[in-house]
Structures are given as C-alpha cells and as structure tokens.
Amino acid sequence: MSVDKDTAIRTTEMHSAGEPLRIVESGYPEILGKTLLEKRRYVKEHLDHLRRFLMFEPRGHYDMYGALLVQPDHPEADLAVLFLQNEGYSPMCGHAMLCLGRYAVDRGLVMRAPQDQVGRNEDGKKEIQVNIQCPCGLVRAFVEWKDGTSGRVHFHSVPAFAFALDVSIEVAGMGKIKVDIGYGGAFYALVVDKSLNVDIRTASTAEIARVGTAVSDAVRSTVKLFHPASDDLAYLYGTIVTDGKDGYSSEPTVNVTVFANREVDRAPTGSGVTARIAVQFARQLIRQGEVRQFESAANASRYTGSVVDITTCGEFPAVIVDVGGTSYYTGSSLFTAEDGDDLKSGFLLS
Predict the structure, then answer these.
(1) The overall pTM is greater than 0.85
(2) 1-156+326-350 and 161-324 agree in CATH topology
(3) Checking CA distances to 41, which of 32, 109, 134, 168 falls within 20 to 30 Å?
(4) 10 Å Cβ neighbour count for 45?
C-alpha cells in the first residue's frame, strides 16, 4: 500500500537532548486491536506505509523518530503510544517519555482527578503524574509544573534487569569480546568502547554505527533472549557503546546507542540508561538512591538515572529506574502527498 493525495497527517515536533520526536496528532485511519501489542501488530501489517511516509525522506531522515498516540487498554493509563523508527516499531523509548510527559500535560491528556494528578517531588517542586502505556508496559512520568508551565520530566521505568553478564561473542573484524545484556523496556548489548578500538568521544557517528551494528549482529546470532511478560519483547533492540565508567563518579559517563537499522541516538537514550543502571545494580556498582549522570556524543544535555525500587520480573531480580531529562517543542507540521511525486512514499539514503 502507498500514500495517496488524500493523505494528510498533522504532527507536533519535539526533541530531548537532540533526539527528535514527531508526535502524530491526526491523519491515521482507525487502528484495530484490543491490546496495545495487537495494535502494534496491526499498524505493522496494515499501515506501515504511513510509518515510511513520516520517518523517511523527504519528510524525515534516517534517524527520525516518531510517536503514534492510540487508545490505551491499561486501566491506569492516561494515554498509549506506539513508537516509529527507520526499521519498525520500538517496544520502549525513554526520550519519548520525556517529551510525551510535557505534551500530555500541556494538551490536557491527563484524565485522573486533579488531586490525584499533582504531587511534589523530593525537592518540594510541584509535579503532575502522567501514566503512559508503552508496548513494554506502563511507564509513569512526572512533569514539573510551575505557574501553569511544564518543565523538566522524569519517569519510572518498567522492571529492568540484567539478562546476562560477561557474554563472550565473536564480532566480525574485531575478534572475541565480552558484552553485558540489559533490559530497560528493550534489550541492549552493553560494550566498552576500548574493546572495540574506538573512543566514543572522538569517533565519527558512522564509525560508532558500524561497530555498534557489528556487535548487535553478533549478539543476535549467538544469544537467545527471553522476556517473562511477552515473546514480542524478546529481541535485541540495539547496542550501547559506553566509556566504561560504570563505578561511582560525580562526572557524567558517556554512552552512544545504535538501534533499529543502524540508527544512532542523539540523546543518552532513556531506555538505555535504564538498562545500564540495571546492569550496574546487578554488578553492585550502584546502590538504591544514588544518582548517575549520562551524556551522549551530541553532548547537548544530560540524563540522570537512579534506582528507586527493587522488584522482580519473572525469575529475574529487577529494579525500577528513575530517568530524568529535559524536552522542548520545535514546531508543528502538516504532511501531505501530491499525485505525480515518485518519492511521495518516502526513501532513505544511509
């Protein structure tokens, strides 16, 4: 299926730490399915041409990211979201939580009673809670609220855990290396940059994408993943290349995430921070309540991460991770198609 001249999709544009988020507000047809995962399968099977229309050039680009708001089926959710990227549909997206928290508050999408919406954080600042249903589960976002204006956002993750530590894999062109595999709403391989003979502070985006993809390919061919909640979540989403600074430090640690089809996150990756904190906790490198700072190669703004609760996920010891950061509006768009345009359905140059 391809787009036609009647296609008109309206969006609001945001970003967090440089990573874009294109929020679909109107223009999609009815999305069928009783559960969010059923809706995810439906858009993949029947409406994928609209993902390409919005994410691909000339309206998007190789590293564009999107959010499609749908009706939630979780009884506590204020809204539900499907995530769009160059390859398909992500199970979780942390930078989107930081954007959608503000968006939901500013658009009046929080449906609970006012006394249940507004609380105060540890610093005494007023904040509004927004419950967002993601394919990986319910995420609770908290939006600072002052004088009628939304501000910084933090969210509490789904149960996050270390799936495996010190997994030995053979990477094409790089030999045998060790990776950790963590889950933070999505599965990631975590690898220290020096083991790949790169420095993430100076390496080009193309080089990081190359080595990160090689690691992901090696893990996918070597490790069988499992998630207690759903087989739909049991796949490797990407690789996080880090500077290796996982012990306590007041200095920020750097990581760059390569996900989907060689897409490089401009932000520190909220779900990646979640997975990295879970692995640090499993290695006893962080205690509950301690705060770490994370930055990406874009070095635009930092995310914070900390363990706020200890729990389980099936047979896995797990943690709830708090991730915080900023987000900003960048504009709004109305995307259309014109007859005779051979490129109206979208294309990608990598």
Answers:
(1) yes
(2) yes
(3) 109
(4) 8
**What is the CATH number that goes with domain 1-156+326-350?**
3.10.310.10
Q: Where are the domains of the chain?
A: 1-156+326-350, 161-324
- Among residues 93, 99, 134, 136, which one is catalytic? 93
The tally of CA atoms less than 13 A away on the side-chain side of residue 2 is: 13
pLDDT string in tens for the chain (350-residue length): 778 888 999 999 999 999 999 999 999 999 999 999 999 999 999 999 999 999 999 999 999 999 999 999 999 999 999 999 999 999 999 999 999 999 999 999 996 655 566 777 777 779 999 999 999 999 999 999 988 899 999 999 999 999 999 999 999 889 999 999 999 999 999 999 999 999 999 999 999 999 999 999 999 999 999 999 999 999 999 999 999 999 888 789 999 999 999 999 999 999 999 999 999 999 999 999 999 999 987 766 899 999 999 999 999 999 999 999 999 999 999 999 999 999 999 999 87
User: Domain 161-324 is of which CATH architecture?
Assistant: Roll (3.10)
136: annotated active-site residue: no
Angle, CA 43 vertex, CA 51 and CA 41 arms, to 5°: 130
